[in-house]
Amino acid sequence: MSPPVEQIQHEPLRAGQALLSRYAESTVWLARYMERIENLARIIDVTDTFTRTSQTENGWRSIIQINADEERFYATRREADVANVAEFYVLDRENPNSIASLIHVARENARALRPLISTEMWTHINMFHNWVRQLTRRDIGPSQLSGLCARVKQECQTHNGITEGTFYRDQGWYFYSIGKYLERGDQTTRLVDIKYHTLLPREARIGSQVDLSQWSAVLRSAAAYHAYRRVMPRSLTPAAVAGFLLLNNAFPRSLILTLRQVNWALGQLRTDYGLRRGGDALERMDELRASLEDQTIQQIIVRGLHEFLDWVQLQLRHIQDDVADAFWTLATAPIEPAVAIQTFGAAPPGAMSQTMGGMTQTMGKPEPDPVQT
Length: 373
Known about the structure:
Elements: H1 21-53, H2 59-66, H3 70-74, H4 82-91, H5 99-112, H6 119-133, H7 145-166, H8 171-199, H9 209-221, H10 225-231, H11 238-247, H12 255-273, H13 279-293, H14 297-327, E1 353-356, E2 359-362
Antiparallel strand pairs: 1-2
Helix pairs in contact: 1-5, 1-7, 1-8, 1-9, 5-6, 6-7, 8-9, 8-11, 8-12, 8-14, 12-13, 13-14
């Protein structure tokens, strides 16, 4: 049981003080984990609704594929059905990509950020964490799962609102934006990659009601259905959906918009705070954005959508690595297993590691050096 908020004592961060590298790191990962929780709840909810109302193959298995968890899932479970997948992704604390695991490490990052974040942010994350800890198998039953996912999404959106309204606009805000939008872009590419190839209809089904409902479900998984229909009220094709989720400049979860947000945050750190070592990440970001802006969705599909999205995901991982190398990786500093560090690579003995499609966080704590410039 965590101590009450008023009992936690922290030295406040003074105005104009350089952001500590461990704060930058924890801020990025807090944003990533909260974004990942909402995305996971959204996909589970839509899959549950879709599989109950339509005939489809690989509905629940596609969630495992999106999160690159096949080996871990099938090591302990034989069938990818609603009961097994829901337990694996909601309750299983041995699964680092479950909601229970993700909210735990999000809370640990928030604890490390107590000098920076508002009391409201900390209180909400703490309450969200405690609610998830109390969930049981009964709460993920067939009649409860949709309501549970709605509650999880609401809690994540509440976190976003509190963060928007109370997080001080200094270096920490830009690092939060980097984490949030890197995660959002990565999740969008995974959804498009898996669903596009899983749901490509046989010729006899093209334009059928089943076909249309499948692609509606993909859009709802990304909270994109109403925005898509606003732009394209009469067209619902695989290429149009993929193009909207990857290339639309106004949809907040599209890949191209999330990249623009990351680029903006990195630029602000350089221009406003003189943190010049983010140049490698910016160069890679420019290359990635140019590759999207120079192609139509039809050209991407012809050249190979899966291969292109694999390359995008690799670039996003490299950008995260570049950010870590620039602002908090301490190449020569010894790792102390008793305290917390989040990095890429091998974890120290006894450390807690989070992985998802190549993205790794290792919980620890480096020396409190200022963000490197």
